[in-house]
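Appendix B, Record 12. Input sequence as logged:
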Amino acid sequence: MKRAGLFWFLIAILAGGLLAAFAHPALAQGVVPGPSAPVVPVPRVNLGITPSTKPSDVALSLQILLLLTVLTLAPSLLVLMTAFTRIVIVLSFVRTALGTQQVPPTQVLVGLALLLTYFVMAPVIDDVNKNALQPYLANKISQSAALDAAQKPIRAFMFKQTREKDIALFYSMTKEPRPKSQADVPTYLLVPAFTISELKTAFEIGFAIYIPFVVIDMVVASVLLSMGMMMIPPVLISLPFKILIFLLVDGWNLTVQALFTSFQH
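Logged structural output:
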């Protein structure tokens, strides 16, 4: 009797468990339901972006976008519309002709080129500041008038350094009619013409600087060959002589003087 009672007791427990499993789907899958997560209300965030109702608001946004674009292109404008291109190329030629590899370092050459560019462009900068920037800051002229006044001295500087042959090249490629005066030449044609003119002038100055150092290398190589020292690299012997001669003639002074003279023509 005791065994029969125990048997029926176990049967009752199993039946109760089955009924509870069928009654709750989660229990039927063997998953014990946990406490439900609390619902946290999400606050509404106002970003302040509303549709524009005035055309002036759109124009102001476009002006800010244009200003940011110009600031992004400022390094390119510095290189392409100033004396920086000619100066940095000539200084690089001097370093290469000396054969000193990375001496002076590139950072030093670029910094020196920036300072020399400021000295060369000082009259242009003063003209832009006097006739364009200061009147605009004093609300005497409009923004468009300030841009026109700022372009005049910069364009005059570029025209002074640009060859007519280079301007004619870009006119021939664009198939536009030839201008009657400098004022008719658009800036987008003047800038590339000015750039290739600067490259040509810089290479001419660099060639004149390179010739004396090549002569020194040839003399040293001939002396070593005549002495039977063919295993010694000529550059190893000529480098101290090139540095010594460059210092004796005050080479950096002559280089900077030649650069400034080239911009005064």
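Residues 17-32 have pLDDT under 50 and may be disordered.
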